[in-house]
Design goal:
The protein has 14 helices and 4 strands. By secondary structure, it is mainly α. It has 2 domains: 2-405, Growth Hormone, Chain: A (Up-down Bundle), CATH 1.20.1250; 406-436, no CATH class. It starts with a helix and ends with a strand. The relative contact order is 0.15.
């Protein structure tokens, strides 16, 4: 549910904020949307630089320095959610009263609030989930999260930029839902108790990790696993470099090239989110069959091919919506597998730090791609929108080729009685076991 709130907020943010900035810049300085594409990208990027500073700091504090009766992660989720819910509606308020400076200030405050709690929130999953089950757990997280994205997109479709005064409603609704999620989380989830309950399963999961070398607490990562980490993080960076550009300038592209409002554009985003939602859980079976590496590569192809086709098409129709739908399935497969592939290299003392590295890569990608795609659009026009995404997804595909996971035994995830070589029962409960 924490991820539900995160994706709902970002969906509203990424659809409205670039349009607010465009209108504010044109209102105060003149010019056209293409003239200001670069500056909008720079502003979006500078905000994300704050996240780059915060994510590693709060990841480290959560892992190493935080021990409370509420757990290691919950205090950061509480503080970050409250702050984000307070500041988020003020982005719309400041844009409506035509204040460029205060709109940017409110954007920055929201970015800081999200930076406080994103890594600790996502680190809850590996804290309580054995390594071989993390793709499955991540699929469930993304399934619920993308319901949040669908809700966020639905709100922006109801309140389009034709009446800017009404655009405050999605911001307020998002803030209220986030507070409700926080209350539910505080009442229903007792972090310390769950972590204690899962200790034995987590220990067994470490033995079944797909790392090339043994991962041990307090010891540095092996050389071959460092190479794997670099390769996968590079692939993640490039994938987000593509996808974040689509998000940041999607609503602007819709208005400037397709000549449709955020309501029509939202149909494509909803198709992407819905097919992602429908793909998350089935992708678990795909991962079991062909592994995380080849699942990620297949997901990338599901985006590259539709993006190239869309680049030559550049018209809004049901066909474009279908291309978005195919891309949504690919994005789901990628998301289910990239974080768990990286989490294989983590141990219990650096879980949030490794999660933080993953999200730093995504934030760096977000910051840099906002600038780079702004330059591209200013020089060659918004028609490069889909080709830009296809290019960087292709680079991510190349990086994945060099990722080398270790083969482990046949994983069993059913409720079975598992025996060791001496014939004694090892596990007699629902959960995790392996037959070598």
């Amino acid at each position: 549910m924490a991820f539900f709130g995160i994706l709902m907020l970002w969906q509203v943010y990424l659809i409205y904020v670039p349009l607010y900035l465009r209108d504010l810049l044109i209102s105060q300085f003149g010019g056209t949307a293409q003239d200001w594409a670069y500056i909008v990208g720079v502003i979006m990027a500078l905000d994300n630089l704050f996240a780059l500073l915060l994510i590693p700091i709060f990841s480290w504090l959560s892992d190493k320095k935080t021990r409370t009766r509420y757990g290691r992660r919950i205090p950061y989720i509480f503080a970050g959610t409250i702050a984000a819910a307070i500041f988020f509606p003020f982005i719309a308020v400041m844009a409506i009263i035509d204040s460029l400076v205060w709109t940017i200030v409110m954007m920055t405050m929201v970015i800081i609030a999200m930076g406080i709690y994103r890594s600790p929130a996502i680190a809850l999953m590996p804290d309580i989930t054995p390594k071989p089950l993390r793709s499955k757990a991540n699929a469930i997280i993304n399934f619920v999260g993308y319901i949040g994205a669908i809700v966020g997109t639905g709100l922006t479709m109801l309140f389009v930029m034709d009446n800017k005064n009404l655009t405050i409603i999605p911001f307020v609704v998002t803030a209220v839902i986030m507070i409700g999620i926080l209350i539910m989380l505080m009442l229903r989830f007792k972090e310390n108790a769950v972590v204690e309950e899962m200790k034995s399963d987590l220990a067994l999961g470490e033995e079944l990790a797909e790392t090339l070398e043994k991962v041990e607490e307090g010891k540095p990562m092996g050389r071959r696993d460092k190479i794997n980490m670099f390769v996968m993080m590079s692939a993640v960076f490039c994938a987000f470099f593509a996808f974040n550009a689509l998000n940041t300038f999607g609503s602007t592209f819709a208005e400037e090239v397709l000549e449709v409002t955020t309501r029509e554009w939202g149909l494509g985003l909803q198709a992407l989110a819905i097919t992602s939602l429908l793909t998350f859980l089935p992708s678990i079976k795909l991962t079991r069959r062909i592994g995380r590496k080849y699942s990620i590569m297949l997901g990338l192809l599901f985006i590259i091919i539709p993006m190239v086709i869309a680049g030559f098409y550049n018209q809004f129709s049901i066909f474009l919506v279908m291309l978005f739908a195919i891309s949504g399935a690919g994005w789901a497969i990628i998301n289910v597998n990239t974080l768990p592939a990286i989490m294989e290299m983590a141990n219990k003392s650096n879980v949030a730090v490794i999660v933080g590295v993953y999200y730093v890569a995504s934030q760096v990608a977000h910051a840099l791609t906002s600038i780079v795609v702004g330059v591209v659009f200013t020089a060659w026009g918004f028609e490069m929108y889909f080709f830009y995404a296809a290019f960087w997804m292709s680079v991510a595909f190349v990086f994945c080729i060099f990722f080398k996971p270790r083969k482990v035994g046949q994983e069993k995830f059913t409720c079975e009685e598992i025996t060791d070589t001496a014939g004694e029962v090892v596990i007699e409960d629902e959960g995790l076991a392996v037959v070598e």
